[in-house]
Write the structure tokens for this entry.
Amino acid sequence: MGTSSTDPKTIKTDSDSVDALRAMVKQLQKENSDLSISLETSTQLADLFAQQLLNRSTELEQRNLEVAAFARTVAHDLKNPLGGIMSVISILQAECKVGQPMSIDFANRLQWLDQGAKQLHNIIQDLLLLAGVSQKGQVEIYPLDMHSIVQQVIHERLAHLLEEYQGTIEIPEQLAFANGYAPWVEGIWANYLSNGLKYGGRPPHLVLGSNPLKTGQIRFWVKDNGNGIPLELQSQLFTPFTRLPTRNWVEGTGLGLSIVQQIVKKLGGTVGVESGVSEGSLFYFTLPAVVLS
């Protein structure tokens, strides 16, 4: 019988390979364990950050509601006494016209009081509108007769401005119907039209119109005969509390156009301006068109 022999070098080599393999397995197990711990830690941190973000968002939402409620309360508290002041001013103006002639100084002071009361009334209207937009999440959207809404706004809100600035408003026989929320859309028209009367030409002349867009929306616009707005300033128009230095100086809060932007965004539309120096300005907003079934 033959005898077999094993090379000691071969045995050593096999042993080294097994040891190396075991070491590799241990290293992989350690790395896998470290990776599991790292993933678990990352997941915990992500959950923690998400919870903190949610808490912060809830807190900010609550603060916004509190601010809106405060604005509404202040506006309502100011509205009643202001109504009494405006009534007294009207009585004084009427009595002075039919009684003894008033001095120029007295007439100027009375006019100043009247303008100040009307300005304060407009600020209150802005605050009430802002509070309403901030507090209401969803509103009922329905087809709006824009021609009737414009007529109502002019009659109820703009009569004194038309008289003060001797302005004219050109309304087409028909304005397109669109989907929206009437109380908010009235605020849009009131803002655009009052701005046109204040900042338009002298005397101001406004032209209204509407046209359908390929996007399925209706664009409504107000064009004035003012000096126009430089391109570099147009991006600031819809920023809260911003008033452009190039426009005719008329007191205000600078809130109006920013409120308009919030309203239109909530109703699914957009706002914008087209203007050139000495060419007047065209302010527009879009709303979803009425789809006939």
About this structure: The mean pLDDT is 79. Residues 8-98 form the longest helix (91 residues). Strands lie at 142-144, 168-170, 178-180, 205-212, 217-223, 271-275, 281-288.
